[in-house]
Amino acid sequence: MNAPYKNIALAVSFSPTSKMLVTEAVRLKDLFSAKLSFVHIGSHTADDENKMRELMSSTGLKNGDVEIFWQNGDPVKALENVCADKNIDLLIVGALEEESAIKYYLGSVARSLMREAPCSVLFFKTSSLPHIKFQQICVSLDYSDSSEIALRKAHNWALCENISHITLIREIQVPGLAMAVNDSGSVDEMTDVRRGWEKDEINKMDFFVKELNLTGIEFNSVCLYGKQGWEARNYVDETQADLFVINAPKKKLGFFDRLFPSGLEYIVKQLPCALLIVKTDR
Amino acid sequence: MSFTVIEITTFLIILSIMLFMARAIGEIFRAFRQPNVVGEILAGIVLGPTVLGAAFPGVFNFLFVKFPNAQIALNGFTTIAVVLLLLVSGLEVDLAVALKQGKAALLTSVMGMAFPFILGFGAAFIFPDFFGIANENMKLAFALFTGTALSITALPVVARTLMDLNMFKTDIGFLIIASAMVNDLIGWIIFSVILGMIGSSHGSIGFGATTGLIFVFLFFMLFIGRKIIDKVLPFFQTKISYPGGVLNFILIIGFISAAFTEYIGIHAIFGAFIAGIAIGDSAHLKENTREIIQQFVTNIFAPLFFVSIGLRVNFIQHFDFAVVAIFLLLGFAGKVIGCGFGAYWGGFKKNDALAIGFGMNSRGAMEIVLGVLALQFGLIQEKIFVALVIMALVTSISSAPFMNYFLREKKLHSFISFMKLKNIIFTKAKNKREIVNELVNAIKHDANITDKHLFDVIWEREELISTGIGNMIAIPHAKIDIKNPMAAIAVSEEGIDFESPDNLPVKIVILLLTPKDNNELQLQLLAEIAKAFSDVEIVKNLTTAKNKNEFYKKLESRFYTENKTTRVVAFVENHLKI
Questions:
Q1: Among A256-265, B83-92, B106-115, where is mean pLDDT lowest?
Q2: Among A98-112, A144-158, B47-61, B381-395, where is mean pLDDT lowest?
Q3: What is the full DSSP assignment across B241-258?
Q4: How does residue B482 score in pLDDT terms, banded at 50, 70 and 90?
Q5: Which residues in chain A have Cβ-Cβ distances shorter than 8 Å to B183?
Q6: ipTM, interface predicted TM-score of the complex
Q7: Which of A225, B98, B243, B549 is most buried by its number of CB atoms within 10 A?
Q8: Which regions of chain A are under pLDDT 70?
């Protein structure tokens, strides 16, 4: 079985949740037989060294088990640089469950990383730590090549965790549908049209998975009608999934995307569970 | 003031007659796949001075002239109707969708507004008398209005047309909807500024103050109000009885906004429209709520408003052929060229861009609302109003056929439309490899690819996992360097082992080739084929065909359920051997 990631880094900040994040990172390191590094952005004093040692010993890590990088400057840039230089393929970050309005509009470290990190990023919802293992994985699909890579990663991850099935989510929304039907149609027509679309999408998802020839895991397909990102976020939340996998957005999201949110923005604004954003180039 | 029994009775009779006529004629139009609104306007013309007034003046006078109080009540009712109509129009505007479409949507909507606007503004400013200006002192406002009237697009008609053409869930569909949304928003902002201009000339607050207030209101509703609504909507939806609570909340916000814009000198409908956008943007607004409010407005209030239009004006008396012709000419040219070029520069092909231009040309209800307000404000004369209504009707009716014509190539993305009769073979092949080889031979000329290479690509995929999908069907497939999808079918009477999940021998093998760069198209076609052969009896019935023609006819019946246009395209292609 192929592990999805081989070179993991954890952003360490000595916050109250750091110990739980380290525990999670160590679990994933062992699960994937991967290399683990810690990245700390900020001061590098004797006191910081002590804190790091304490953190390591409290989670059973010995010297040499992990490589530690002490960095200065802008946190996003510094993390990006370490990931790029050290060939990291998965960066783990702790994220608050819900962002404040100011942070939301101005962009926090976690949000910037989602868009700009050179590798895949795993965000832990700090309130839901610690994990023993992931039990239920959901993957958002858009049939793109990046989506295929995200699904393969999720599949490998599920095999490592010994999970029996993955839920695939496809969201569709056609603005103006209610208007089109009401102008000269009926409610039944609208329901039929929507059900037809949903059925088509389920069929397409089934073929998509079949084409990838992913074995050893069962796939459930779910098609949700409504605002993109929002529906998937709520579904993941309601079904109490613990890992939500999506592929990284093609374009960088800007201020206007936050003003009129869509897709990823809804998920980021209020994380339903741990979120894995898969970068396709690594 | 109180109403007499006869006034109330007349008012109620008027309402029932209007609703009956709107539904009756609307249904006739619906049967011909035309928008209901066209039928509703015609119902008004029949009930109004144009037909009923001319044929039975006594009846007309009794219903619509004799009791002024009943008319006042009717006016109040139609005002509420138009406010609600704009509120639900706003609900459907999704600015995030518009933003997502990016450059192409922006270019299409901006060009599609600017070009007809300049044409209309220029023509009305240079020849105001020809266009029948109502008040010489309002030349600028009149020219601005004419420009706006030509540049508006009606989202409901566009949406319906896309649905009928099965183009809703396509890149073109999304672009048209997004552009129409932006167009609607900008159009109403310009029009509200014009109304502010007229209001200021009538001595209320100054033009500068009105315009300033319009933008303050817009900013507040779209940025702050929208966020507040998003926060409180879940409370109304979950804590107060559903759907009463949330419907109440939506109407309260809509009416307060409408009252505010009416107070500052622009019309109430602008406030309702912007309130609609602010409410509709909330992800918390349930689809079901949206549908309920749409249903009661479009089926009860909107028909009353549209029927009332025909009651206001005599369409024969005020019909001016030259004005109607000029409006139609400027309207078509402005929208089709403007939007067409916008879409073309936004990266769409020529035919797609033209289809987008004609799609955006439908003006429908929005044009009529605009005309009614301009008439009420004394900005235009009846002959311009009549021309606007006719332009709205003609552009709405003509939109679908024109789009259909220019999108005929796009329709080739339905399996049966590219499945050619000549690519059907009856085979005696004994195994998978032989049958795939025969199919490759049948299609290699169309694909313009060497048979060896084509076979290798298909076989590589086949070896990964069998393409036998069950029900005696297999769909070997590959993505190759072609522009449009293509297919060939082999029919085996004996049946071949394809390692299908149900272990049944495969009797129909469909070779499917799709363009390399379109992942979704391949999935869409695979799903379409699987759906068409969802029962093994269907396949058994198909294999009883004695020849290609019979097989093709049976095949057609599996894929054609409603889309007649695709059928015509496929028929012409097969019979002309294109």
A1: A256-265
A2: A98-112
A3: -TTHHHHHHHHHHHHHHH
A4: confident
A5: none
A6: 0.76
A7: B98
A8: 1, 96-108, 110, 126-131, 178-187, 250-262, 281-282
Question: In DSSP terms, which residues pair with A219 in a beta bridge?
Answer: A166
What per-residue confidence (pLDDT) applies to B16? 94
Backbone φ and ψ of B504, nearest 5°: -80, 145
B243 cis-preceded (ω within 30 degrees of 0): yes
Dihedral sign for Cα atoms in the order B152, B155, B161, B165 = positive
Q: By CA distance, what is A254's nearest residue in B? A: B99
Q: Which of residues 14-73 of A touch B (CB under 8 A)?
A: none
Whether the CB of A257 is below 8 Å from some CB of chain B: the reply is yes
Q: What is the percent of chain B with per-residue pLDDT over 90, rounded to a whole number?
A: 21
Facing B155 at nearest CB: one of A176, A185, A199: A176
CB-CB under 8 Å, A175 with B97: yes
**Which residues touch B78 (CB under 8 Å, ≥6 apart)?**
B304, B305, B308
Closest to B148 in 3D by CA, of B103, B172, B104, B112: B112
Interatomic CA distance for residues B506 and B500, integer angstroms: 8
Q: Which of A183, A204, A262, A280 is most worth mutating to test chain B (most B CB atoms within 10 A of its CB)?
A: A183
pLDDT value at position B47?
93
pTM equals: 0.77
Q: Kindly state the greatest CA–CA separation across chain A.
A: 74
- State the DSSP string of B16-65: HHHHHHHHHHHHHHHHTT--HHHHHHHHHHHHSTTTHHHH-HHHHHHHHT
Are A204 and B520 an interchain contact pair (Cβ–Cβ within 8 Å)?
Answer: yes
What DSSP line would sit under A171-194, residue for residue?
Answer: EE--TTHHHHHHHH--HHHHHHHH
**Residue A131, burial from CB neighbour count under 10 angstroms (0-12, 13-18, 19+):** middle
Chain A and chain B share a number of CB contacts under 8 A equal to 125
For residue A130, is the peptide bond before it cis, meaning its omega torsion is within 30 degrees of 0? Answer: yes
Is the CB of B160 less than 8 angstroms away from the CB of A183? yes
For B440-472, what is each residue's pLDDT tens digit?
988 887 777 777 788 888 888 888 778 888 889
Q: What is the pLDDT of residue B202?
A: 55
- Res. B571: pLDDT tops 70: no
Q: Which residues of A touch B157 (CB under 8 A)?
A: 183
Q: Average pLDDT of chain B? A: 84
Strand order in the sheet with A243-247: A66-71, A35-41, A7-12, A90-95, A120-125, A274-278, A243-247, A137-140, A165-172, A218-225
Test A200 with B34 for CB contact under 8 angstroms.
Answer: no
Mutate to test the interface with A, among B160, B185, B520 (most CBs of A within 10 A): B160
Taking an 8 Å cut-off on Cβ atoms, the answer to whether B524 and A200 are in contact is yes
B575 catalytic per annotation:
no
Examine the pLDDT at B400 and tell me if it is beyond 50.
yes
- Residue B92 to residue A63: CA distance in whole angstroms: 60
Shortest Cα–Cα distance, B108 to chain A (Å): 18
CA distance A201 to A186: 23
Q: How confident is the model at residue B409 (pLDDT cuts 50, 70, 90)?
A: low
Contact A180 B465 (CB under 8 A): no
